[in-house]
Amino acid sequence: MELCRATSFAWSHSISPSLHITQPFSMCESKRARVCCVSNDSASSQSQKANQMTVSVTGATGFIGRRLVQRLHADNHHIRVLTRSRSKAQLIFPDKDFPGVIIAEEPEWKDCIHGSNAVVNLAGFPISTRWSSEIKKEIKQSRIRVTSKVVDLINSSQDEDRPTVLVSATAVGYYGTSETQVFDEQSPSGNDYLAEVCREWEATALEVNKDVRLALIRIGVVLGKDGGALAKMVPLFMMFAGGPLGSGKQWFSWIHLDDLVNLIYEALSNPSYKGVINGTAPNPVRLAEMCEQLGNVMGRPSWLPVPDFALKAVLGEGASVVNFLISPYFLFLVFSLIKLL
Questions:
Q1: What is the C-alpha to C-alpha distance for residues 338 and 74, in angstroms, rounded to an integer?
Q2: Handedness of CA 284, 234, 295, 241 (dihedral sign)
Q3: What's the pLDDT tens digit per position in 232-258?
Q4: Domain carrying residue 60
Q5: In contact, 164 and 116? CB cutoff 8 Å
Q6: Which segments of the chain have a pLDDT < 50?
Q7: For residue 199, what is the domain's CATH number?
Q8: Domain-located, residue 247
Q9: Is residue 336 part of a domain?
Q10: NAD-dependent epimerase/dehydratase domain location, by residue (predicted)?
Q11: CB neighbours of 113 closer than 8 A, spacing ≥ 6?
């Protein structure tokens, strides 16, 4: 499955130099920006205040959410972290480093969302585990429950207190699996379990008030040095145990963490960002190529593939996700548990 991007965006990261994209990848009309310089510090300060947003974020303690909060805080926006665990959020966002950030547990979400300019919804139970009927139920319900709560709270707001934009995460799992097809935002949904999850996840977000601009970001494999897939892959390659999973022919539809955060950030303030957006880089690669490039950078071989039968033994039905989406913890989980078989 190869994903196509259909939104104008400048991508700053690449898998390899041969695949580096130096120009914005766009299938849409380019937007021009006019910059006016003023020498009056007071005018500049007033302009900054006028552009300040109040943003409520679910999933803020996760890999993507943490970086998004850091970016919003660095730009002096007002942030409301919507969490189920205040103590966990306080460890990640201590007041000395994030002054002014409000941390709210579920009973307080209503007061945070009412009066916010925007909401970013990133919450969901990890898919990176051996699937059982109970786990599959939690994967789906966790996403739908939080999204439904967020949508209900937005819809119950008075007009003057209602957020104007909801940026809600979904996933490239929407498209199902294929080694040959190219998918863009208009492509139909797949027929497997994760496609079903994504359809219901998105349908829940689409129930938001029609006056609220909705951006649904179908996120691919997120890469970053501080977590995500790379954090699990690098130690394996360092131990000369790196290599692709299964055939290695799977499309690795990836995005760098910073590019994803920039995409979400732009979606918050740019009114042209609405509807479905594939949160992937414009240059997907085969998983085998991804592993080869990582091995080259680290001076390690990519020589230890994990066969299909071993994936199924470790992950059960969850092995099907490897056909199109390598979740951040799958690589660590697979290589760790294979040794126990």
A1: 42
A2: negative
A3: 555 555 554 555 555 666 777 888 899
A4: 2-19+50-224+253-281
A5: no
A6: 5-9, 15-39, 43-44, 47, 240, 310-311, 314-315, 322-341
A7: 3.40.50.720
A8: no
A9: no
A10: 56-272
A11: 56, 80, 82, 119, 150, 153, 154, 157, 163
